[in-house]
């Protein structure tokens, strides 16, 4: 096995305000940095080159996966670390990733992703144990089989699962935190991120309505915008093809998309006054998930409560609270613990 070397792989566009601290956060860890620029009009390219990165220019074609794969194809290391310019790698991650690069069995490293509440937050203080964090597959060996898929909310998890099923190996959560400093309402508005992502999501779901994770993201975005009727209709029309797709997956493949889809869709059915449909959907998704998730438990509890099944509802709310603070790749709903406690109080169970 060659001596491990780590390539930082990024896509950038007008990231002059964020890029410097990102590159500083990986100094001493990565052996090279590859930045694919998709049309910057500020000093991003010059800043990146000044920091020693190789900069490739590529026209933006509404496909995040294609841009990320261009960076992977240009990388010269044995492993890829994938970051966005508005993300920072926490210092303790360096030793963890160096060790991970020496493990031949590692197919994909899932890194905890923390969200800062303001742009100037100290990443070391944001990424504290027990704080809420999602998981993202951002560290993996540079192999042709491991490429990003989907034009938006892109990832390598599906490719990693196929490789693991064929050759063995592990997909593992690593204690190598990333802190996202740019996911702030004012930043998203200034850059038009929400409108861009909505358009890309609608296009991607139209191309593949059985992709439950993308449908889940679109359901969430439509719900956030108040378009609940359209969101519920979309969930209803895509539930069956989504479940068929899940059932065709290899045994043991991770299925976080059933949490994203099932939790949101069940909530929409509840708002529409259809608790039986909500219960059927959330249980169908839970059966296909490896382990229980608090979002599914909360939706199940609310549906059971609406149906008058008090004992079962109390059990679901109780499991929800037990799981609420554990780390999951799909984050728990905001206010989930409070909703579960309120449910138990209504039912006389807490």
Can you tell me about this structure?
By secondary structure, the protein is α/β, with parallel strands linked by helices. The chain has two domains: 6-185, Spore Coat Polysaccharide Biosynthesis Protein SpsA, Chain A (Alpha-Beta Complex), CATH 3.90.550.10; 192-346, Tetratricopeptide repeat domain (Serine Threonine Protein Phosphatase 5, Tetratricopeptide repeat, Alpha Horseshoe). Helix content is 49%, strand content 14%. The protein contains 15 helices and nine strands. The protein has helices at 19-25, 44-50, 64-74, 93-101, 123-126, 157-167, 185-191, 193-207, 212-224, 228-247, 257-271, 275-287, 294-306, 310-323, 336-346; strands at residues 6-12, 32-37, 54-57, 79-82, 87-89, 106-115, 134-141, 170-173, 178-180. Helix 1 links the parallel strand 1 and strand 2 (32-37). Helix 8 (193-207) packs across helix 9 (212-224), helix 9 (212-224) packs across helix 11 (257-271) and helix 12 runs antiparallel to helix 13 (294-306). The radius of gyration is 21 Å and the shape is globular. The model has no long low-confidence stretch (mean pLDDT 90).
Helix content: 40-55%
Overall geometry? globular
Give the quaternary arrangement of the chains. Answer: single chain
Cα-atom radius of gyration: 21 Å
How many helical stretches?
15
**How many strands?**
9
Summarize the main sheet.
9 strands, mixed
Distance between the termini: 56 Å
Order of helices and strands: EHEHEHEEHEHEHEEHHHHHHHHH
Name the CATH class of the largest domain: Alpha Beta
The tally of domains stands at 2
Q: What's the name of the CATH homologous superfamily of the largest domain? A: Spore Coat Polysaccharide Biosynthesis Protein SpsA, Chain A
- Which blocks of ≥5 consecutive residues have pLDDT under 50? none
Rounded average pLDDT: 90
What is the CATH T-level topology of the largest domain?
Spore Coat Polysaccharide Biosynthesis Protein SpsA, Chain A
Structural class: alpha/beta
CATH architecture of the largest domain: Alpha-Beta Complex
Beta-strand content bin: 5-15%
């Amino acid at each position: 096995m060659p001596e491990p070397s780590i390539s930082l792989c990024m896509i950038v566009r007008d990231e002059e305000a964020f890029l410097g601290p990102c590159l500083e956060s990986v100094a001493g860890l990565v052996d090279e940095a590859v930045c694919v620029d998709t049309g910057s009009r500020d000093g991003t390219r010059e800043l990146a080159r000044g920091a020693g990165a190789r900069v490739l220019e590529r026209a933006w074609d509404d496909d995040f996966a294609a841009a990320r794969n261009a960076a992977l194809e240009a990388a010269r290391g044995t492993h890829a670390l994938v970051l966005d310019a508005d993300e920072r790698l926490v210092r303790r991650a360096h030793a963890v990733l160096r060790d991970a690069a020496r493990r031949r069995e590692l197919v994909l490293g899932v890194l905890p992703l923390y969200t800062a509440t303001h742009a100037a937050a100290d990443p070391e203080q944001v990424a504290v144990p027990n704080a809420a964090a999602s998981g993202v597959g951002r560290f993996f060996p540079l192999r042709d089989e491991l490429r990003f898929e989907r034009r938006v909310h892109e990832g390598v998890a599906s490719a990693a699962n196929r490789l693991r099923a064929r050759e063995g190996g592990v997909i593992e959560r690593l204690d190598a935190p990333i802190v996202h400093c740019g996911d702030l309402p004012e930043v998203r508005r200034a850059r038009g991120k929400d409108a861009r992502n909505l358009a890309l999501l609608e296009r991607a779901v139209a191309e593949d309505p059985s992709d439950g994770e993308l449908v889940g993201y679109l359901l969430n975005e439509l719900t956030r915008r108040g378009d609940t009727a359209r969101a519920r209709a979309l969930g209803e029309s895509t539930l069956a093809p989504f479940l068929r797709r899940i059932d065709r997956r290899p045994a043991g493949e991770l299925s976080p998309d059933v949490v994203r889809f099932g939790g949101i869709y069940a909530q929409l059915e509840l708002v529409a006054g259809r608790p039986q449909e909500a219960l059927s959907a959330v249980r169908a998704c839970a059966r296909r998930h490896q382990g229980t998730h608090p979002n599914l438990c909360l939706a199940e509890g609310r549906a059971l409560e609406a149906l008058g099944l008090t004992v079962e509802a109390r059990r679901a709310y109780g499991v929800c609270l037990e799981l609420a603070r554990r780390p999951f790749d799909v984050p728990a709903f905001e206010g989930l613990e409070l909703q579960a406690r309120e449910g138990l109080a209504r039912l006389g169970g807490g």
